[in-house]
Each structure stands twice: as structure tokens, then as C-alpha cells.
Amino acid sequence: MFETLSDRLTSVFSSLRSKGRLSDADIDATTREIRIALLEADVALPVVKAFVAQVKERARGSEVSQALNPAQQVVKIVNDELIGILGGETRRLRFAKTPPTVIMLAGLQGAGKTTLAGKLARWLREQGHAPMLVAADLQRPNAVQQLQVVGERAQVAVFAPEPGSGVGDPVEVARRSLDEARRLNHDIVIIDTAGRLGIDQEMMKQAADIRDAVTPDETLFVVDAMIGQDAVTTAQAFMEGVGFDGVVLTKLDGDARGGAALSVRHITGRPIMFASTGEKLEDFDAFHPDRMASRILDMGDILTLIEQAQKTFDEEQAAKMAGKLTSGENFTLEDFLEQMMMVQKMGPIKNLLGMMPGMGQMRDQINSIDDRDLDRIAAIIRSMTPGERQDPKIINGSRRARIAAGSGVSVSAVSNLITRFYEAQKMMKRMAGGMGIPGMPGGKGKNAKAQKKAKKGRRVSGDPRKAALGKQPSESAPDEPKQGGVLGNLGGKLPPGMELPPGFDPSKLRLPGQK
């Protein structure tokens, strides 16, 4: 949703990093670029003016002029102001002192109210509540049937006494739903109201009548994040005609520019409470302004990633797998398949990688990732026998041909998977050994002792050619790093990009836990 805005802001900040001090001209140029980026993202003009003015005022203050790194301070200011425009803090639902809590949904037709009602009900059910959906949209054809289907998928009750499609009184349905909720011990009632293709008096009056009949604890305005400037106009009309307590953004996974999310909160003064980020019922969560600002500035969203992992992974299973990963032993293709299935449950790989900091610079590579590749890998592993999964070394040519035929892939695809698995095993063993670094797990343990013992008992061959090959680097080239120590487990070499600077002395490192 915010890819264009994120790319523009990232390029603006990258040009600042080379400057040791920021002049007034630098600040003016930066705020001008920020203004253009926001306008291109379809943010409302009053919001852009207020945002840029606040950033410029703070950027010219002492917090930037006295900062050791002015560019980072400007990024912090923009991040703070984005959080402020998006609402500051996460707004939670208000629950009634005496159940049931009544939540009324309002918005235009096509904004996704009915589907969102199911998403909200499912989310509340997972929080330990017993919600009930109410079919009060009796105008749109098949709206009642759609809500019943959504409710069944979300595993929540649906109150639908009228068939809809123009038949029934929505105000009476809403009023009766409260008695039904009390009778069946539902602590939350979610009322799905009718929408129109545009603002009209009939829709506003019906929504206002339902509001007066049930006195909702929360009235949520559902807005399509892809409609741009119209979102602000519609929100203002609903604010004056019905009134609402919070905003729910739908279709945040779309490719529109996303200015509505930055505009609605500032214009209406009402917080964004929830966001829908996909078509599935689980693609829904509370809206966190700080996390959204972090995503826009390409600083990632690690907290959401952790929360999704906690929901998906079983604690005992995760602890058991962590033991296998850290030991670097007994990690089989069966374990690999199990972990892959867990990651798939967390959502599309592209979305997960997008939550990592700095991934905006690799957007093209991330977008090229196909989740079906994971399905193909799973098919290959499932085509193996239990013995082959435990010990891939027994997979010879004929076995590879059988596995390829069973999974519908080429023999080379099977060979590539096995090769990559061996490489992953080696990497885990190196990590388990701490790569020989003092203070890291395995850095001063059995591996170090084994190396010392092996060094002590080394024999030099009588063949001068073999003796030369077996010499320590210290004997042939004093400037080269010695085997053992930091580079011992990697054969004296680090991967490209991780080479140590000349003259680096690892013995002087003081890692956490060392005195």
C-alpha cells in the first residue's frame, strides 16, 4: 500500500546521510521532497501542510543542530510526526460494564463491511469473547446470506431473523438482537448495517435510527483504503450524519497510494482502530500507529512478526526445534518440512520478509518470490520414505528418479534440494560451534579442546610437498590470521562481505558475559 511513499522517503533520507551538518537549504529541500512524496501518495492537502510545517519547525530546532548525526535525527522527527498523524497510540475497544457490548459498523457499499464483520468477530473470539453477528443490512441482495457464510467460516453465531433483499425492518432486527444475545450469553454484538454506493439521506437516517435504537458502545466507520481523497469526504459526511468512534481500514494490501490512512485520522479526529490486510479472515489486526510509521520508513515491523510467530508456533515444539538448530545435529528433512509448514501458516513469505528492516531496497526480489516454490519443496520431501528423510545420504540416482516422479518435478530439483539441505546443516553446525568466537556458544567448549588436542598431536609428513601444505599460516606468512580462534571453524576464511579488517585482534574483544 505505501510502497511509493516509502521509496520516496527512503531516497530523501539517503541523500542526507552524507551531510555532517544540515543547513536551512538542506532542511527546505528535504521538506519539499517530503511534501511531494505525501501529495503523490494522495494524502489530503491540509494534512500535508500541517505535517511538513511541524517537521520543518522541529528540524530547525536544537535537537537537530546539536545532534551528532543530524540525518538520523531528521528521520526520527519524521517518524514521530507520522505516528502522531496516524493516531499516536493504539486505541483499544471499549467494552460495556454490563454485557453485551454493542459494536455498530457503518460505511459505503463495497468498503467490505460484511467481510470485516466476520474478521472482527473471529479476532474477538480468539481473544476469549463470544461474539454474535447481526444481519441488519436488509437492502443489498444476498447480504444476509453472505453474512451467514462469513459467520460460519469465522465459527461465530449469526442473528438473521429476516431474509433481506429488501424484506424486513433493520432497526427492529438490531433491537431484537440485544435480547437474543442476553438469552444466549453472547458478550459482544456486531451489527452489520446497510451501505450505499454514495452518500444519501435514506442511508444516513437508517444508520442513525439503528444507533438510537441500540446505543452502541462503539460505532466503527469502515473505509476502503484504496479510494484516496474520497475517503476523507465520506468520513466527514458520516461524522456529521451518524457520528463514529473509530475507523477501520480495509484493503490495505492493495496497490493504491494509501493516503486515506494518513488523512482520515487527522481530518476527523477519530483514531484508526483496526486494519484489514488481505482477503482471508485471519488477515486482520489492531492498528498500531508506531508500527505503520516504521513500515512506511522502511524500518520494518519486528513486533508484528514476533506476534505472528507466537500465534503460529507451539512453545514446546519451538523449544525442541531450537535445541536441534543450536546443536546442529539430528536436524532432518522431516524437521525442515515441519518448520516450513509453520512458516507458511504465518502468511505469504513476501509479507513476512516485508516486515524486516531495510527490505524496501530488495522489493523487486521479494515480489519475485512465489509461495508455490514451498509447495514444490514439500511435495519432494513427502515423496521420500521416512528413512530417506532421516538420512538423505542413502538417496542414490534411482531413488532420486522415483522421488522426482512422485512429486512431479525434475531429478535436478530433487538434487538441488538435498544439496541446499546439506549446506543448511553445515551452517547450523558452524553456528552451534560459535564459529570459534570467544564468548559465543561453543566458542570455548569441546570444539576448542579438540582443536588444541589435534594441534598438539599433529605429525609432519616426510614429503616436503605435503609438509608445506600442512604448515600453519603463521609459519609461512606471519601477517595471515592463525588457524583456530576466530577463523578456526571456517578453515581460515569468512564468507564474502564478512572479512576482518587488517590488524584486527580478536583476543581484545569483550563480549557480553566476559569480564
Automatic annotation (TrEMBL):
E.C. designation(s): 3.6.5.4
Pfam family, one: SRP54_N
Top EC group: hydrolase
Keyword Nucleotide-binding: yes
Family statement: Belongs to the GTP-binding SRP family. SRP54 subfamily.
Quaternary state and interactors: Part of the signal recognition particle protein translocation system, which is composed of SRP and FtsY.
PANTHER family in alphabetical order: SIGNAL RECOGNITION PARTICLE 54K PROTEIN SRP54 (PTHR11564), SIGNAL RECOGNITION PARTICLE SUBUNIT SRP54 (PTHR11564:SF5)
Protein's UniProt name: Signal recognition particle protein
Gene name as annotated: ffh
